[in-house]
Amino acid sequence: MLIAIDGPAASGKGTLARRLARHFNVPHLDTGLLYRATAAGVIDKGYRLEDGAQAASIARGLALVDFDEERLRSREMGEAASVVAAIPEVREALIEAQRRFAARPGGAVLDGRDIGTVICPEAPVKIFVTASPETRAQRRALELAGRGEKVDFAAVLEDIKKRDARDAGRSAAPLRAAADAVTLDTTLLDVEAAFAAALRIVQEKAAPTHG
After folding, report:
1. Which of 96, 101, 100, 126 is nearest to 113 (CA)?
2. Range of the domain at 26
3. Residue 68: which CATH number?
């Protein structure tokens, strides 16, 4: 049971990935945290975010556990991660770690922006989760406000649009749906409805075919 979930920022892919992992009792990896942790390491060492050699070195030294999620999920770190994730050397440095995670016996759920296209193109279940920029900005604003951050909706929406453009336009593993991915638009769906839809997709894709 290997499930690859991709999509833009705040589309709901992480929530769905965690729910599916719990449902099927398999491990989950939020690959976005790897890029956020890399960005945090670059910032902590005083390097420029665009310094590919230093960022790749930090990426190679990452463990896949014990992240400071409170810090990494801040708006600032999300924007920084988008810059670092556009560096080909960084993506290359993180590929093998992600593939080793995906190869765990019994399966896994991975979510990110290039899981179905680059990390796990062989995954039998690929879901591309999306939603309108305004809906995603509203979700991100609520998430940030819930952590006590001061929120400017217009600025959050602008960040979302900038990240979409950067993710889709980068040369290394641009954000796009795999050819055999099922697109799930969560704009009008609450968490439970989105999970039910994702679960149906998994069950249909994973069902044995006859004939």
Report:
1. 126
2. 2-202
3. 3.40.50.300
Q: Which two tokens stand for residue 208?
A: 């044995």
Reduced to 3 states, what is the DSSP secondary structure of residue 88?
helix
Alpha-carbon torsion 92, 54, 171, 182, what sign? positive
Residue 211 pLDDT class (50, 70, 90 cuts): very low
Please, what is the Cα angle at 25 between 67 and 127, to 5 degrees?
80
Task: Report residue 31 CA to chain centroid gap.
Answer: 5
The answer to whether 181 touches 6, Cβ cutoff 8 Å, is: yes
In angstroms, the CA 195 to CA 12 distance is: 10
Residue 167 belongs to a domain: yes
- Tokens, residue 16: 């769905």
Could you read off the pLDDT of 69-97 as tens digits, one per residue?
889 988 889 889 989 998 999 999 999 88
Q: Which residue has the tokens 């999306």?
A: 130
